[in-house]
Amino acid sequence: MIIFAHRGLISKYPENTLQALIESHKRGFATETDVRLTKDKEYVLIHDSDLRRLCGVDTKVNELSLNEIHSITYKASSQYNIPSLEEYFMKLSDYKDDGKYLCALHVKEDTQTEFSFKNFSNIFKKYNLYKKIFLFDLTIESTRLLKKIDPNIDIAITVSDKKFEPTVYQWEEVKDEKFEIVWAAEFRNLYQKEFIESIKNNNKRLIAVSPDVHKHPHLSHPKAHSGYKNTWKDLIKWSVDGICTDHPDELKDFMHS
After folding, report:
1. All domains of the chain, ordered by start, with CATH?
2. Are the CB atoms for 43 and 35 separated by under 8 Å?
3. Percentage of residues of the chain with pLDDT beyond 90
């Protein structure tokens, strides 16, 4: 089973920094990270649409060039800044996939354009990323578009028991679409044995988001702060393909306990 470190090793480094992502790989984990486009159509790794929370700058990502973003440092420490996607992929080439995915790339909805998908195709070819990276949280329309542009890029569609974002679907809505992976994000009671078996019977891989990731007020999973290990126990028992968590070291120890 693959352990995905949510936004990298955030227990040690600020989220989505090169240090957080590369340290995750050094410890044997895959990563989950977020990608957005700058004003000059370059990709950077940041979750938010603006720089307020991370950098204390009240400016949107798409209003700045890559060079301008690189000149801004994190509030937590001036030694960290927002990396570009290519910076990360160049570092990633040092790590072998051993047949497993190295990264789940969260493509924000406003970045899901024909221009972006053609660029992703070029980058995947340049760095030989097929079966190493997959894109997730795509809309059904974006999934169909990307499959026309490059059918070899693996895609994960987000499935939940509540449509809390426009890119989130019910399993019955998407099970007949052409994609490889279900990115399962439980709101309250999605993780049931029957649900897991249905996905496996449909020949899709399943990556489950651990409840600890959903601490945000508009999700506030009841097991976000405690009890998530009980969910881990079930997911491992049901042989999911991967778990995404804020606590990758803890999950690794739990799996071997």
Report:
1. 2-36+89-255 (3.20.20.190)
2. yes
3. 93
